[in-house]
Amino acid sequence: MRRETPAGNRGSAKELIENDAKSVARGSALPIVTGDIPRELQNLPRWTGYQFGLRENGRLAKIPTTESGFPCDSTSSANWLPFDRAYANWTTAPRESNGGIGIQLPNDHIVIDCDDTRDPVTGELKQWAHELVKMFDSYTEVSVSGCGIHIWVRGDWKGIDEWSGIEVKRGSFVAVTGLRLPDVPRTIERRQKELDALERSERHMVSARFVRDRRFRQLYKGSVTPSRYRSREHADDAFVLSLFWLLREREAVERALRRSGRYRTRWDRPVEGQTYFDLLLDTAQALYLEASREQHLADLRDPVRWLQRAGKRVTKTRRIVLEAMTGCDAPIWPAVLAHMTGLTADAVKACLAGLRDIGVVDQSSEGWQLPLRPPTLIASSRHSYPHSDNSVVIALERHRQRRDVEAEAQHAESQIIERMSE
Question: Is 172 exposed, middle or buried (CB count within 10 Å of its CB: 0-12, 13-18, 19+)?
Answer without folding.
Answer: middle
